[in-house]
Design goal:
The chain has helices spanning about 1-30, 30-40. By secondary structure, it is an all-alpha fold.
Length: about 60
């Protein structure tokens, strides 16, 4: 029962993240991302992406 509950919560969290990503990309038509990457390229920079470390509850940034 606990595993099912945990999986259900994970699924809801995943759905919320997917919706957030969809909204972000469709509202701007992805142009903002491409413009930012091109700006960095012109300035001689290259963007690098890494997997975010899991946040620990209670940590204040």
């Amino acid at each position: 029962m606990r595993a099912f509950s945990s999986q259900h919560l994970l699924s809801e969290d995943l759905i919320k993240k997917q919706e957030k990503i969809y909204d972000c990309l469709t509202v701007s038509g992805c142009t903002a991302i491409y413009t930012f990457v091109e700006l960095l390229n012109i300035l001689g920079f290259k963007i690098s992406i890494q997997v975010k470390e899991p946040e620990i509850e209670g940590d204040a940034e």
